[in-house]
Each structure stands twice: as C-alpha cells, then as structure tokens.
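Worked example

This section walks through a single chain of length 194. The input is the sequence exactly as stored; nothing has been trimmed or padded.
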Amino acid sequence: MASRVTFVCVLFCLILCPAFGKHLKAVSHFSFFRGNPRWPVGQSDLTYAFGQNFPDSFVPPVVSAFDEWASGSGYFTFSRVADIVTSDLKISFQRMSHGDRDFNGTGGALAHAFAPTNGTLHFDADENWSLGPGPVANAIDFKSVALHEIGHLLGLGHSQFRDAVMWESISRGTVKDKLTSDDIQGIKVLYGLN
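Given that input, the structure is written out below as tokens.
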C-alpha cells in the first residue's frame, strides 16, 4: 500500500498555530485561507524566480504547473525573472531547518507555500522526486506537488474533494498534474471570476 504523504501548507501568520485547520473556511469542496488573502486587484501578472540551488531539470514541471493555473484561472499570467529578491513568487529547495517551517527529511512534509502575498514556496530537497512522465513507484510526482503548492500561493486552501489537486495529500506513485473543476471553481470564486 502506497504511503500517504501530507502537504504542509501554512499561512505566514499561523506558522506556529497548532490548530491550523481551524483557520480555513470551507466553501463547496474547496477552501480559502482565513480572511481570504489574495493578490491585489490588478496584480494578475505574477513574476517568479528560482533560488540558486534549484536544479535546471526541475524547472520545466514548475513552468508547466504555472501554465496550468494560467489556463485554469483565465486570469493569472506568470513570468520568470532572474531576481528572486524582487519577484512576486520565490521558489527554492530547502533542507531540514531553513528559517521558517522545518522539513524532516524523506517522507512527511513535501513542500510548503505561503498565502498571498508572501509568495514563498519551498520544496524538501531530501524527497525522492519523480519528474515523470507518468507515475513512478515509490516517488513523489514533482509537478503534482508544484501544482498544489502554487494553488496555495494564489490563496487556495485544501479541497475536500479527493481527486482535486488541492486535496491535502498525495500518495507515492500518484500523478495529479491537471486541475480539476473543483480547483478551477475555487480560484474563480476567490478572485470573482465567475
């Protein structure tokens, strides 16, 4: 039986809150962070940059995940820039204790992203990642996790719909590299795009 690994997804001001789950507001199957944080009106073209330690082979799945959210939302566009300091979204690999929410090595937390407008996304460098195509036994599909975490960067919480990208966990050997109608409905409701 494939082990389930839980995404760690935090709102910056709730990092130390042990009752994090109580701070999400459910709407339909999708949810938002408490207070519905979102990118400001008119800021739909978000820039992103990768940390110096980000391997080139991991860039295409992230770019593909951004393309999926751009298409699914019909609102956001994403542009890569070189300067991580001034970019809206800052993406890097980290290990163990790294200044915000610690990773724990292989298994457990795969990544964490912060709600708008913090823009920070960290992947656990110690995980056994798969770059596909398709499922790989005993590995975590990197694009699936990137797609999920970008949803958090845009303001979505976890979905109650098991097939959604924004479901709270993913099993090794599973691929969720396409947004579901629940994911798309969530982002459209959050940004008033219906």
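What to look for: Residues 59-73 form the longest helix (15 residues).
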